[in-house]
Amino acid sequence: MPQLSAGDTAWVLASAALVLLMTPGLALFYGGMVRAKGVLNMLMMNFAAIGVVSILWVLYGYSLAFSKDVGGGLIGGLGDFGLEGLIGEKSLSGTIPTTVFVGFQAMFAIITVALISGAIADRTKFSAWIVFIVAWATIVYFPVAHWVFFFDNGNGGWIADKLKALDFAGGTAVHINAGAAGLALALVLGRRVGWRRDPMRPHNLPLVLLGAGLLWFGWFGFNAGSALAANGTAGVAFINTQVATAAALLAWILVEKIRDGKPTTLGAASGAVAGLVAITPACASVTPLGAILVGLAAGMLCALAVGLKTKFGFDDSLDVVGVHLVGGLAGTLIIGFVASAAAPAGVDGLFYGGGFDQLWRQVVAAVAVLAYSFGLTFVIGKVIDKTMGFRISEDDEVSGIDLTEHAETAYDFSTIGGGSRTHGLSRSAAVRPEHGARVVTSPEPAHESAPASTPGQAPEATSEDSGRDSAQGEEDGPADAPAEQKEGSWTR
């Protein structure tokens, strides 16, 4: 009979708080990467995920994901609706109160939904996003969480208890799931106005690095906290998370140095996130040396994968596909090669004499989650688009989604550079009055061609090779820009 452990309870509570911090960190990470006229909307999309998913989780999300299986490993029942039966002192999940486990897993649901927002930045109706959160969390995330995270002595989720694929902290349920959904929505909504024509550079790179730092910090709760105990497994997950992230950061900027001539701050931030993504499923399955290999592979693969959107013509605004889908796939599949019985999971991969037994399980799990998420997300997106409309109008997009959706701007551009620059706001765009204020109009568009001295601005570029929306910079910049640019540098 399990006994309540005060130490385990304290660790999981702290881990839950760390994972919650990841969503504001993600908001800053994404917010710095969008243009100045869309940063508030990106922050709002992430914070809306916190609000909506928290309520859904308490009402029925936890029950669908973690109550007794009612569908052959596919879905839980509604026996824990509202959590009323779980709040007693004797209700335990292992050595921690069930309510602590509920709170910890709620943070996973929140961050998964928030990750999707980066694929559809700058063009999504906020009201449609709220509806999407409800539909996607209910139809996609809660069932997939049941597949991957619910263990019940062979009667739990089909990936966890029947297939026995290894996913310690959510490479499939969180990252492949969100990445596939991001790809589907990018296809449903289409490209941003001016994509590959107008500059769409990150407007504030220090904000990106701040967000990446908060993500890195919070990810220790995400991975080490998934041990659900203050024990050796948590320690292994902790150190593996650190070294894999460090290796991926170095691998990404090395690719940039070889390909583009210079490493970038956005590359360092993105490399770190790619490493965090890839080690998520593998952090209890590999040794620290294996974790370094996971990080190196993820950093290189994701640095190359972000170029897929320009080659295939889909506008994944902030590289959700290139980092989270590809990183999640890399981390999930590499377990089949470098898993070691010396790690807490106790399974050998192909390179350690385990043959293909674990590899095929990892492949099936990854493909199943990818296909399920992509297919249903595409349908959900199409239904929303055909009924209430998923995308703002072109005029609103050009004017700036912060103004048109929220009647706010992040910065007072009239105080910058003599007050003449407005960062893409149209003269004809009506600013919605706030609390009864008069409607005003804004000056002619500047098409984001701010000079290099604009705070946080990334350099110009022309090469499509790096994939970070480099093609968008082909006609970028002021008229007196130098004729030749450094080949291989990029803009988003």
From TrEMBL:
The lineage of its organism: Bacteria, Bacillati, Actinomycetota, Actinomycetes, Propionibacteriales. Keywords: Ammonia transport, Cell membrane, Membrane, Transmembrane, Transmembrane helix, Transport. It is found in: Cell membrane. It is a multi-pass membrane protein. Homotrimer. Its main location: membrane. Involved in the uptake of ammonium/ammonia (NH(4)(+)/NH(3)). Belongs to the ammonia transporter channel (TC 1.A.11.2) family. The chain crosses the membrane at residues 12-31, 43-62, 100-121, 128-149, 169-190, 202-222, 234-254, 266-284, 290-308, 320-343, 363-384. It comes from the Bacteria. Gene3D superfamilies: Ammonium transporter AmtB like domains. This is Ammonium transporter. The keyword rRNA-binding does not apply. Residues 413-492 are annotated as: Disordered. InterPro entries: Ammonium/urea_transptr, Ammonium_transpt, Ammonium_transpt_CS, NH4_transpt_AmtB-like_dom.
